[in-house]
Amino acid sequence: AVESTSNADVQQLHGELKSEESALVASERDVLAATASVESAHGQVRALQATLAAKKRDREANEEKKRACKAQLAQLAQQKEHLTQILAEKNRSVRRRRGTHCHDAVVARRETGRHQSAQGAN
Question: Per DSSP, which regions of the chain are E strands?
Answer without folding.
Answer: none
